[in-house]
Design brief:
By secondary structure, the protein is α/β, with parallel strands linked by helices. The chain has seven helices and 13 strands. The longest helix is centred in the last third of the chain and has 44 residues.
């Protein structure tokens, strides 16, 4: 078992530096330069992608092609929707890649892991919770499929810029508070169902924290974002490590 985890790249286009970095990383997995059995994409890989539109398929075609190559080479690819890539489950499922929205558990080698985008870690962000319930409503999913993708993209770029300005300030001012929220969510998740590793994204800062429950010591890992430094988390039967890309 050799599993990789990435999240929160917020890729706008393939000409960006991180677009090239992501493509090289995926090719390294396909060619087994970085051996892999699993690849977990934990949301917000793309800065805006809504619905199953041909527009996004064409826009990010080289990356999609390599992801499908990974699947065809026997690597298990799992996609978790974020808050910037919404209603994409049907697209990835149609191409044979497992996709879902809520937290999921996986057995990987000796480990039990829980993966999450992490956008529900902060229940105090009631405005976001209301927005999430609205945008993920089945009616909005149908609307997203009906509206032209280019029009959605214009609206999405505007919303992303506005959201990023607010959230970056909030994260700078309350990183310790947000870390505590991650830790509380990790503990509550363990009470629901024990795991060895809880791996999430969304918060845009890297955080590693372990806690003891009897004889067990589960670990919570937040992947951070690629805004400052592209990194990937690697997990095998001996434990985890980070790869700077």
């Amino acid at each position: 078992m050799k599993a990789w985890f990435i999240s929160d790249i917020h890729l706008k286009g393939l000409n960006e530096r991180n677009g090239n970095v992501l493509l090289r990383f995926l090719i390294s997995l396909r060619d087994q330069k970085n051996p892999a059995t699993h690849l977990f994409l934990l949301g917000d890989i793309f800065d805006f992608w809504v619905g199953d539109h041909e527009y996004y398929f064409s826009k990010f075609l080289p990356i999609i092609e390599v992801l499908l190559d990974l699947k065809n080479h026997g690597i298990k690819v799992i996609y978790v929707e974020g808050n910037h890539d919404v209603h994409v489950k049907d697209f990835w499922s149609r191409h044979g890649i497992e996709a879902f929205v809520e937290d999921r558990y996986f057995d990987l080698g000796p480990w039990k892991i829980r993966v999450s985008h992490g956008d529900l870690i902060n229940p105090q962000d009631t405005k976001y919770v209301k927005y999430r319930n609205f945008i993920r409503h089945e009616i909005m999913e149908k609307v997203a499929q009906w509206l032209p993708a280019k029009q959605l993209n214009v609206l999405g770029d505007w919303a992303s810029q506005l959201s990023r300005k607010k959230s970056s300030v909030r994260r700078r001012n309350s990183e310790l508070e947000l870390k505590n929220l991650i830790h509380e969510y990790a503990k509550k998740s363990y009470e629901e169902k024990p795991y060895n590793f809880f791996i999430s994204g969304h918060m845009h800062f890297r955080d590693e924290w372990s806690f003891r429950v009897g004889e067990h010591q589960p670990v919570s890992i937040n992947l951070g974002s690629w805004f400052e430094k592209p990194t990937a988390l690697y997990l095998d039967s001996s434990g985890y490590s980070w790869l700077e890309l």
